[in-house]
Amino acid sequence: MEAGIGVRRRILEAAAEVFAREGFAGARVEHIAKAAGVNKAGLYYHVGNKARLFEEVMVEHFSEVAARMERAAASSEDPGQRLDALVRVLAEAFEERPARARIMLIELARGGVIDSETVMRQMARIFRCTSTVVSSGVQSGVFTPENPFFVHMCLIGSLVLFILSGPQRERAAAMGLGREFGIDPMAPIADMTAFLSGMLRRGLAAPGAHSHGGGGHEG
Amino acid sequence: MEAGIGVRRRILEAAAEVFAREGFAGARVEHIAKAAGVNKAGLYYHVGNKARLFEEVMVEHFSEVAARMERAAASSEDPGQRLDALVRVLAEAFEERPARARIMLIELARGGVIDSETVMRQMARIFRCTSTVVSSGVQSGVFTPENPFFVHMCLIGSLVLFILSGPQRERAAAMGLGREFGIDPMAPIADMTAFLSGMLRRGLAAPGAHSHGGGGHEG
Amino acid sequence: MEAGIGVRRRILEAAAEVFAREGFAGARVEHIAKAAGVNKAGLYYHVGNKARLFEEVMVEHFSEVAARMERAAASSEDPGQRLDALVRVLAEAFEERPARARIMLIELARGGVIDSETVMRQMARIFRCTSTVVSSGVQSGVFTPENPFFVHMCLIGSLVLFILSGPQRERAAAMGLGREFGIDPMAPIADMTAFLSGMLRRGLAAPGAHSHGGGGHEG
Amino acid sequence: MEAGIGVRRRILEAAAEVFAREGFAGARVEHIAKAAGVNKAGLYYHVGNKARLFEEVMVEHFSEVAARMERAAASSEDPGQRLDALVRVLAEAFEERPARARIMLIELARGGVIDSETVMRQMARIFRCTSTVVSSGVQSGVFTPENPFFVHMCLIGSLVLFILSGPQRERAAAMGLGREFGIDPMAPIADMTAFLSGMLRRGLAAPGAHSHGGGGHEG
DNA sequence: CATGAATGAGCCTTCATTCAT
DNA sequence: CATGAATGAAGGCTCATTCAT
Fold first, then answer.
1. What CATH number is attached to the domain comprising B30?
2. Is residue C212 part of a domain?
3. Is the C-alpha dihedral spanning A154, A159, A164, A166 positive or negative?
4. Contact D190, D219 (CB under 8 A)
5. Do B39 and B76 lie in a common domain?
6. Least confident of A189-198, B125-134, C108-117, D201-210
7. Per-residue pLDDT band at B114 (split at 50, 70, 90)
8. Strand F: which bases are under 7 Å from protein Cβ?
């Protein structure tokens, strides 16, 4: 019974990596199986289906991110700090496992409506975190009432893109773009986090409110 | 002889749509051909290759976006207005043809380094626009010196995600999320643009500088 | 686990026949699969590739012929009898499986250098048999020193052509060429063998040496 | 009218080369067209068909060889010298245009009965040359009555194989087989001709007859 | 006649999936 | 449970051939 669970875990893990790298259509069941150290037929025995496997990976990752963000959204009384926490937690989740960022993207890129109810629900959970933080800030008078979807897109989009552009930025760095323009393409994610936090805070700051409680990174 | 060009156009157009919807691996050459009103063999006669077709689509779309952004980056003397223009132009480009947003994403999602030198160059052109605008603002003292990569990720990521999340937001709207929370998931892109512009401006604003020149439209 | 080997055998067998009949380019993988009683995909599972399949067939047949000829080349002390054995063994190999003759021809006809090192090695083995026999005859003083390549071409070329011209000769026979000229187009291969043996012996005979040890056929 | 003929010539020439190199199935009509400097459609206009093109090439080459051999078969009173002429003429034909050797082989290798009546007739013409020379020698008492098919196979087979094995022999030479065994893989065809002539003469010589009239090459 | 473009048929290959052992 | 083998259904690509211009 435990071994069985172990196998499932390995399969999901491998699948996440492969799906992230190749997309749904591009992923080969055989590669996933090999990466998980199982036989192809074994994989089918354990998960039944490429589509189901994909869904399960989605759900797992989305719900993991959702759980973390929910914790972050409840981490403090101060809306600004909550926002910081949201950013920080998301960055951590992606840094820890870049595949996560790609998986979110793949799902988005598939366009159309998400076919899996479960996945959709997890995405909603994630959105609700942003939404909650924003509206709590509005209620305490420190945030302007902005459409939380905008904030969400900004939060998720910026970080996902930052993670995914890693290889390109690396290449840019190798090409000497850094020295040329006095910027560092390979700046650590903590810097990005700090920037994003600050920007969101100031972007959301209510007209009269003076920003307090230092933003940012202490990674 | 015009017909030949017309066919190529139709093929590229169809390919953009299909690649955007299905990704590279998921796209079926036959679907593209059918959508373009050509025979599969005819498609190969005109473009030679699925990979080449993909690259051509990439280059076309990326360079179109690059051209528009370059124009935007040179549209004004005022850095803040330039930034607004960047946002506005990108939003227009995506709204006009949502496939463009997905195509950018697909390329990013493929992870790894981009294999096509030409595509890479177009992406660099796009980045350079952001970079130019930021550093011009820094030189005129109105912007804080921030890593332009951060700004770029924020700009592109937010808008791409906004476009792509359309269907999901639509669904959210259908589920009544709007009335429930007093927000409109289907807010027009102009609102998102305004929000993003404002946020970037304030996020980049140099400490002492007082923002002048009204931020974007709030249609 | 025996079944697996059995399948491979059947595939190679079928492939030999089809390649012999149609050449490499003309052979259809599907025909081979059907002839072997496997699914096309099954064929790929077992051999991986049309080219690999072809090479494997080549190697198998060439090495079989090589092995037999090596045995023949060592079958006696007398160079003349060795030469006879060479001819006889080759004729047997071809008669037993005419596809072999065609396969050798196809490989030759492909012109250019053989791309497979392994196949090349087998062909060299075969040549070495002729070469050995000739030079042993020279050393014992019964053969004139002639370029063994010439002898080899004569040996292989004559027999291959005889086998392959079967159908044409049959047609000639049907058209009454036999009665017309008092010759039999369908003479058995044993007669051809006898002729070839005799000719090679006399052709190679050292000036002073008197031929001993009856040549010929006892098939 | 003359230009038209010129085009046809170029097409046939190119086709011969390509068919020789790739076989019937392996040859691409487009390659032939390009090599002939015509448009693909133009080729069809001029010859109508891949199969017809192939046949025409066959007929042309076979009949050219046939014509030369007929001349050779009538070149002298002495059967031995006629035989020499046959060998010499064939060698010349092949040396002049190695494609000829491959084309003969391809046709043979296709196995089965030749489908074109015309091609078959040309092959018969060629055979008849050998047959005539042999039987004339028998009638004048200098040749043993041997099945002319055997002689023919020997004559054609040896020379075709010699020509076609050129690349392999070249490789053998490059690998140092020459120095190793004191033989020259790249011996000129004239040597092969001499060997073959001598062998056939002695092989056919009637028991009592003393060979007269020097064999061989003066090429 | 020459040419660019089109196309149906077919080829090699791969993939997700299943099943007997 | 694990595995080697099998397979139907594509999928990408090519080819001989035709046609309008």
1. 1.10.10.60
2. no
3. positive
4. yes
5. no
6. C108-117
7. low
8. 1-20
Domain enclosing residue B26, as ranges: 1-48
Give the HSE-up count for residue D53: Cα atoms under 13 Å, Cβ half-sphere: 33
Distance of CA C97 to the CA centre of its chain: 9
CATH number of the domain enclosing D175:
1.10.357.10
C26: nt with nearest C1' to CA: E11
Task: Report yes or no on D70 lying in a domain.
Answer: yes
Amino acid at D40: K
Q: Where are the alpha helices (DSSP H) in A48-97?
A: 50-73, 79-96
pLDDT digits (tens, 9 = 90+) for A128-162: 999 999 999 999 999 999 999 999 999 999 999 99
Residues B109, B71 share a domain: yes
Look-up: residue for tokens 């004004």? B76
Residues D64 and D166 in one domain: yes
Contacts of B204 in chain A (CB under 8 A): 199
Touching status, chains A and B (3+ beta-carbon pairs under 8 Å): yes
**One domain for residues B67 and B159:** yes
**Hey, which residues 66-95 in chain D have their CB within 8 Å of chain C?**
none
**Domain co-membership, B85 together with B144:** yes
Question: What does strand F contact on the protein, if contact means CB under 7 A?
Answer: A 1, 3-4, 7, 38-42, 45-46; B 27-30, 40-41, 44, 48-51; C 1, 3-4, 7, 38-42, 45-46; D 27-30, 40-41, 44, 48-51
Q: Do residues D139 and C176 make contact, with C-beta atoms less than 8 angstroms apart? A: no
Alpha-helical (H) ranges within A117-210 are 117-139, 148-164, 166-174, 177-181, 189-204
Q: Are residues C17 and C86 in the same domain?
A: no
Q: Which amino acid is at B202?
A: R
* Any domain includes C197: yes
Residue A11 shares a structural domain with residue A107: no
Report how many domains make up chain D: 2
Structure tokens at C1: 């686990």
- Report the gap between the CA of C194 and the closest CA in chain D (Å): 10
- The answer to whether the Cα torsion of B32, B38, B42, B45 is positive or negative is negative
- B116, closest residue in chain A (CA to CA): A168
Q: Alpha helices, DSSP H only, in chain B? A: 2-26, 29-36, 40-47, 50-73, 79-96, 98-109, 117-139, 148-164, 166-174, 177-181, 189-204
Using the structure block, give the residue that is written with the tokens 């921030």.
Answer: B146
Residue A89 to residue A55: CA distance in whole angstroms: 23
For the CA atoms of chain A, what is the radius of gyration? 20
3 state DSSP class of B143: strand
Let me know if chains D and A touch, i.e. at least 3 Cβ pairs under 8 angstroms: no
Please name the chains neighbouring C, where neighbouring means 3+ C-beta pairs under 8 angstroms.
D
Shortest CA gap C168–chain D (Å): 6
- pTM of this structure: 0.88
User: What's the average model confidence in pLDDT over D18-34?
Assistant: 94
**What confidence tens digit (pLDDT) does each residue in B157-216 have?**
999 999 998 888 888 888 877 777 678 888 999 999 999 999 999 999 888 755 544 444
Chain mean position to CA C73 = 15
Same domain (yes/no): D24, D83: no
CA distance B8 to D216: 65
Tokens for B43? 């498609």
More confident of the two residues B208 and D173: D173
Least confident window among A106-110, A150-154, C204-208? A106-110
**Tokens representing residue D72 in the block:** 């050779």
Nearest CB to A102 within list B102, B109, B164? B109
Instruction: Find the nucleotide nearest A38 (Cα to C1′).
Output: F2
B150 C-beta less than 7 Å away from strand E: no
Q: Is B160 on the interface with A (CB under 8 A)?
A: yes
> Which residues in range 45-104 of chain C are in contact with strand E, contact meaning CB within 7 A of any of its atoms?
48-51
Residue B212 lies in a domain: no
